[in-house]
Amino acid sequence: MSPPLLKLGAVLSTMAMISNWMSQTLPSLVGLNTTRITTSDTLTQISPKEGWQVYSSAQDPDGRCICTVVAPEQNLCSRDAKSRQLRQLLEKVQNMSQSIEVLNLRTQRDFQYVLKMETQMKGLKAKFRQIEDDRKTLMTKHFQELKEKMDELLPLIPVLEQYKTDARLITQFKEEIRNLSTVLTGIQEEIGAYDYEELHQRVLSLETRLRDCMKKLTCGKLMKITGPITVKISGTRFGAWMTDPLASEKNNRVWYMDSYTNNKIVREYKSIADFVSGAESRTYNLPFKWAGTNHVVYNGSLYFNKYQSNIIIKYSFDTGRVLAQRSLEYAGFHNVYPYTWGGFSDIDLMADEIGLWAVYATNQNAGNIVISQLNQDTLEVLKSWSTGYPKRSAGESFMICGTLYVTNSHLTGAKVYYSYSTKTSTYEYTDIPFHNQYFHISMLDYNARDRALYAWNNGHQVLFNVTLFHVIKTEDDT
Q: Where are the transmembrane segments (predicted)?
């Protein structure tokens, strides 16, 4: 790779909810970890799974290096300390070998070095397999713990390789790999000959530096939907539940709105754990009934469609008052242009990384979907985009990074079939399947903080994780 390309941000993909990142971020934000919730049967279905793996890699038209990171499962083991630690270290070095092979494809300048490292790593892989087979001599706990920690580092290694701003960073990283390989060779000959605590600290330090790279993620394109994770079974067949994407990390309140009409009661829970156990903290009696299930909580306020109208209401949870209301001009309502399942779902309010949106249809656009960006304070339409996708043919839709994603059905076999970018005013047909486990989806909304889709699936409140292509920007990018 030529020197100018070394200054470009790398591309990676992350997902909201099955990755180690999601297991440490989303579950902790919304309370889905097994140490916090242990009394509900549904919780066994939502325990997070940790780990990482490389999903795909490519090069964009501008020469940027891109890859997709997806998180696999991570299993716990109760074997004794040194065996667990050794197996962890061995698999980490194997994973580093794979990462260096990825670097070989990305970096022409390091091509000859990667060929040499590949041969060395293959030799180590054979030795590690031999060690794995020797169950009688390697049954200690600390080795397995380090082995699991290295599993988490696997997808982060190519991130660091691609995110280099100069050759010294890569040289230092390769030197650390060589040192770890040398240490493991010595351990293979005589267990206990190395300071495991020091080695453990080196691994943690490397992990910290790599995670710093991940914090530079920007908006991405939807590539995959995984799940669902079943959080709770409650309510009627139709409804909505949500958290606030602009809330702080410590604020994990959940709001619950059962049914699509003839209701004004919003139930609040302090956390997902309270939501699952039914420990309600507060209720709100709205001044108007709502229509549909496509409400959104954004920056402390609830936005919903007033029943039998095209009026949007902004209601403050803090003050218990309506802060704003505005008619959405020409928008069909009361089952004129609903989603395929009906339920007065004509007007869909949603939020993403960019702001607040309304998705609806008008006679002027022949019943096709219209996307409008709204001012969150006044509800004024800032800008609108007219698409060619019929609203009544859409199962559900959601916004991610200014792009509308539309499903082709609310029933089994549904997939994300169409997307429209407000940034480029262009559309494309897609084929992104997801598992409609309970056969009927009446609400599907993206939460930018959790990087996940919230869904109401036939009386089940579920979460879907998403995998996005992300671009990492460096300070040298212009």
A: none
